[in-house]
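TICKET #2291
ISSUE: user wants both folds in one file
ATTACHMENT 1:
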Amino acid sequence: MIRLMPLALLLSAAMLQLVFDLHANENPPAADATARGFIDAATSGFSPDASGVKNTKALQRAVDQGGTIVVSKPGVYKIADTVFIGGNTTLNFGNGVFLKKVAETGDFTHVLLNKGALTKTYDEHIAIEGLQIIVNGVDVRKYHVYGLHGQLAFFYVKDLRIERFRCLDVGRAQFGIQVCTFEDLLINDVIIKGNKDGVHLGRGQRFAIRDATFQTFDDALALNGHDYAVGNPELGWIEDGVVENCHDLNAEKTTGFFCRILAGAWIDWQPGMPVQQSDTVVSGGRLYRVQVQPDGKLYQSLTRPDFPSGSKVLDGINWGVVQNDVTYTAGVRNVTFRDIFLEKPRPAFSIHFDIGRYSRSYYPGAKIPHQENITLENVRVLHDGKTPILSVATPVDAVTFINCSLKNNPINFVSNKAMSDYGQTTINMIGCGFKYPGQVNLLVNQVPGKAINFRTSSSVETSDNFSAAIFAGGGKIKVNSDLTGLTAIKSQ
């Protein structure tokens, strides 16, 4: 006898098989990584057992495919040259993965550099996750792009994300991370230690640097709209950013600042004008810079630089083309620093011009660059050194302190004699705590004629012996303060 299966059971079985098929399509076998857009760099030959030369070629083959490239096997991977990464690419390094620079074919500069840096073409949608670099003494400036020398470097990039980056042996020649000419930058969860700058930014807009720990001999952060000729490939404004939850760890030796905020300005080329190393001029719709030895020598420029690219010697002066879009000023504006913990006894924030044999940021007679709207919120001084919390040596409209905790940490206004008028600056301190059992020279001005509005409100003094003092230094200081020692001062 043949028994027929009821129609309802046949339908149920068919539906069940359909469900199995659908789930199978949603969850293909793990081995089929390429089908899901993921590539394990091991399939290109990237291996802890391979030489640096072979690994460089293997990783380059992997990133050339775009998409998401994963380095999953823990180990130390030798790298013997720069790997160039393009747009729409995520490079993910798993736990226990390290890239170690080796000079198998000679020293080299960048571990990673975006492809568009070479042609000034924007690369978009790049993510670097979990990268750990061992510099291994391979610390040198051999420029693919003049002025760009980060271990991890990007130039002409939009929508860039760098997360879980580690480099604990930054040398004296190269920065940890360097990014210039950018839009929409996120740097999150980084630890950088060593001798040179931790994170070094050139011109760009919309950025966030979060959850970072620094222990650097030179600047932890550099927001350098202007810079030495060898320090950034282009010039302009750094704007609309947030820096938060960052730690500046103590170290035996130090220079620089927790954050350097650098401005500059220059003029049109003029026949006979004197120039020195790093000076910039505008000529024929381009910016040109002097690229000579930093010996302080002044040159007389008699021949207009007008070549379209590269560099050229004119009147004994080596000129280099910087950029094809013209700006006459550079600096920083609309940036908030929040939850900053300062363990290292060095000047914390410096808003200034360079002047010296390496660079003079401001060319005499140039348009004055006004840096704008800097906010310091919940900045905590954790050391006992008598170091400035803020040094100001350029025109800046306002600096606001909110809920900061200070000790014997003055605000200094200084002049490098670049200009005769440094404009008016408002310093506004709201809800700040002062933890010093004695008198603090809270505001010290050394700029003749400098106009400063100094205001404090809702202040907290943790010692009965605390008092604040102001040194006007020939400036025009207006004071409205609730601090002991300043409550009776209305103006100076």
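ATTACHMENT 2:
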Amino acid sequence: MAYEKLELLIDGKWRAGSDGVSEPVFNPATGEVIADVPHASIADLDSAMAANARVNKEWAGMTPLARQKIIEGSARLLEERFDQIAENLTIEMGKPLAEAKIELQMGIDIARWYGEEGKRVYGRTVASRIPGMTQTVIKSPVGPVIAFVAWNFPCVNVVRKVYGALAAGCPITIKPSEETPGTAVAIGRALMDAGLPAGALNIVFGKPAQVSEHLIKSPVPRKLSFTGSVPIGMHLQKLAADNLIKCTMELGGHSPMMVFDDFDAEKAAEIAAGSKFRNAGQVCVSPTRILVQESVQDKFVDSFVKRVEAMNVTNGLDDGANMGPLVGERRLDVMDQFVNDATSNGAELRTGGNRLNKPGFFYAPTVLNNVPKSAMIMNEEPFGPVAPISTFKDVDEVISEANRLNFGLAAYAFTHNPAIIDKLRDNIESGMLAINSIVVSTPETPFGGIKHSGYGSEGGVEGLEAFLVTRFMSEIH
């Protein structure tokens, strides 16, 4: 299959950037260039904003049913093109094809959910204390949206923002990652082919700082949605403040996974290994601090290491692939740094800890045991296939460790003890908490963090609410 033709989408037209600037896109499993992604010039960005402004009233004025029909049409086209899009997602991102298909199906489900939920944007009537007066609360589209997303989930990161905005009645301009652009372009083609009005969706690429700062300074956007790192999220929030742009920030995480001694340690190890090394650990909700109660440490670690060493690390298109490469060569240096720092601080390297001798950007799935709190990996998000394991004595100690950092995106715990579950529910500082599973994201539930992991939600009614504003009207008859 041919890789997606990469173009900008501006005001309903697919085209190259007006300045002729582009950059290469690499297949991380081979290191080979697979395409060139065009950059939008300043004039192109201004055209996108003008298109959003022009179509704003038209798209907001359409009935939710009319918008839903376009969204549903695009979902069906994504299904028709499923195999090609999934394969291209693997080629540009590196994750195993089975994972790419799961992500694409999740994206289609999110699109459909938003389209249907857009029909249920309800206001309310409030009883008045003044005779003859009606009081009405109205929910309206916030207006044009700008969005910037990370590379690790080329489909879901884009779909959450694009379809949330469109379902709420907002036009949107999105800058996907230049490292994984093809999936976003395929999503845009499906929407345009389904009848989306010109200008309701623009897709642009370019130097991230230049694109984001120019779009945020425009008077057109009324909403910013960002998925990415904490420092960049903070920077964008400051820029958005100058125009009082409403923000949703889905930022980094450092998710604790707490394994208590009343839970089957081998079963916990099986779940932990599958979730930790999904997408080579390049997942914002990946368990990145595995905290095991002392009495089951050896059993858990031995089982965990056995499963990790059995993983087939290879090109994501290969049959039986369990883990693919990292997205780029730069991430290999970061993994080396985390491992070297941990072992120099006394951690035990149980398996991995090295680059794989093959083309592409492969790093061995790595397990570090007895990692001290002082190690860099226990304090900074690793975003890669390195699993640090530490121990705890009791529930109070592990809650203290889980809450020690400024991150607060996701947390996981394995226990059947109702008293411990209640204590975790009341005290763990994270936007999402999974007990005896790793499920923290479905189309109909809110996805988002607290503390430095950001604010606002994607998914669920909360995700739709993020693209709405509340207005109030009183009337005396």
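RESOLUTION: both attachments delivered.
EXTRA DETAIL ON ATTACHMENT 2: The mean pLDDT is 97.
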